[in-house]
Every structure is written in structure tokens, then in C-alpha cells.
Amino acid sequence: MEDTNYFPIPSFKETDFKSFIAYWRTYYNYPDKEEKYYLKPIAKELLDLQDLQLLFEWKNGSILSGLKQKAFNSKVGSFLHEINNLKIRGIVSIDDVRQITPKLTSAIWLIFLTHIIDGEKFPIYDMHVFRAHNYLVKKTIVEIPSNDKKKLAHYENYLTYFNSLKPQIENHKHWDEAMWGFGKYLSRYNNLSNEEV
């Protein structure tokens, strides 16, 4: 019988996140489309509609299906001018983005759009990052809640955690990759605790 209290996870000092990042980002394995779909568009000062499309396809892992494409067009793409204005002006919180995209109700898409606007302040967030953060803070493995309000509340907690570590994070993309890799690794143990937060 498997010991549910044991996970073969390399240990790091709570204060040594440089080693954590160096180790866990090696588990990040996005396909080779990352350059075209993520790195090039996100680096631009101003986006065009194709850039936004590519970024959301990267986040989705494939082209957007009919319903997702319609949602993208009406809830994100139609606000391109406002999104670029926020990129120029800067943002303080997710609420800044929510005000220009009132129909965007998906927490993950709202957070991702916030990341697109300012990736230095707002790290990427998904089920793997949720799992990694929860484990680092609480030493338990739980899955991301299905409720969007709970996702947004957790993301606020994650932002506080991220901001406390900023002095140790030299490259935010590497941090995002490490959190994704660690959370993906933890997913193999999710049957040990499948409660929702």
C-alpha cells in the first residue's frame, strides 16, 4: 500500500526559490509552438487581434473551438483598443481589466488577459499553478475549484505569495514554468486528496 504522506519531491529550503525554479522549470514541457504563440506576441508593447488570438490559442493548447472562438471574439477580441490602452497606462489589479471586459466571466481567461497586459505583476495561473501553490503553502494536494469566484480569490492569495518572493525571482517566465512543472508533477498524486478548496 502506498504511503499517502510520502511524495518523492526534492526538498528545498523555504528561502531557496532560485533552486526550486531551476529544478522544476525543467518539468515544463510546452510544445514548440511557444515561440510563435506566446513569446513573440506577449513581448509586444501593443497587440493586434492576431496576437491576442495566438496567445489565447497557446493558453487553450489548441485553436479555439466554435464556442470558445465566439466567446473570445465578443469578450476579448472586441476590446483590443481598451486592452492596449491598459498596456500603455498600466494596471494595479484584475479589477482594472474586469472594468473593460465586463462580459468576461471565466476566471482563468480574465487572469490570463491580466497576465497578457502585465506579466511582471500578474503571473500565469491555471490548475497546475493552483496545485503547486497550495502544496507549497499548505503541504496538501487539492484541485482547483470549479467556481470562478473561488479561483479569483485564490489568485489574490497567490499574488500575495508571488509578491513576497519577487526578490528571489529573476525571471518571471522561469517562475511560471517552475510552478507549472511542479503542479503538473503533483497531479500524479491528486487521487490522494481530491477535495476542492
Beta-strand segment tally: 0
Rounded mean pLDDT is 89
- What distance separates the N and C termini? 27 Å
Residue runs with pLDDT of under 50 for 5 or more positions: 1-6
Q: Which H/E pattern describes the elements?
A: HHHHHHHHHH
Would you kindly provide a brief summary of this structure?
It is built from 10 helices and no strands. It has 197 residues and is mostly helical.
Tell me what the structure shows.
The protein is mainly alpha-helical and 197 residues long. It is 57% helix and 0% strand. It has 10 helices and no strands. It has helices spanning 17-24, 34-42, 49-60, 66-75, 80-89, 94-100, 107-117, 127-138, 148-165, 172-186.
Write the layout of secondary structure elements.
Elements: H1 17-24, H2 34-42, H3 49-60, H4 66-75, H5 80-89, H6 94-100, H7 107-117, H8 127-138, H9 148-165, H10 172-186
Helix pairs in contact: 1-10, 2-3, 8-10
